[in-house]
Amino acid sequence: ADITLxxxxxxxxxxxxxxxxxxxxxxxxxxxxxxxxxxSGDLSLNSGGALSxxxxxxxxxxxxLTATGSTTLANSANSFGGGIHLQGAAVTLAAxxxxxxxxxxxxxxxxxxxxxxxxxxxxxxxxxxxxxxxxDAAGRSINSSAGLSLSASNGxxxxxxxxxxGLLDLSTAG
Length: 174
Description:
This protein is mainly beta. 0% of the residues lie in helices and 53% in strands. It has strands at 3-5, 24-28, 32-34, 37-39, 43-47, 51-53, 57-59, 63-67, 71-73, 79-80, 84-88, 91-95, 99-105, 109-113, 117-125, 128-132, 135-137, 142-144, 148-152, 157-159, 162-164, 168-172. Strands 1, 2, 5, 8, 11, 13, 15, 17, 18, 20 and 21 form an 11-stranded parallel beta sheet that branches. It has an 8-stranded parallel beta sheet with strand order 3-6-9-12-14-16-19-22, with no helix packed on it.
């Protein structure tokens, strides 16, 4: 079943956990925290404050993240089957498998994956750090106003259109 709770005045008092949900759309006027959740389709989250988690997320479809505060989905057991589009302040993401990103952070943007990390669109932030088994940013723009770091633990880095103020750090182990 689908769950759609997108009224801008929603204010969830604690962690929201879901299971056996096809598509999930949530809006919260303040901070939004997710508990352990499993979504077999798409996930859309809109937070009037911080966006965080207290348990691992499993999303088979695409994910849209919008927050006026920081976004911290840093559980390394997270699994995202589709692309993630983000918009917000400082953003920290982690995943146990492939991670596909696009979007803008007004603060620092950090994304790490034990699998391949690739960009489906342009990415920008005030300090961008992307790491995965490989990093594929070919044909995409990465803009960082405070340093840029791309790290591949077991493969190549493919990139074009890099723009960084400050340190540019590229590292591979493969």
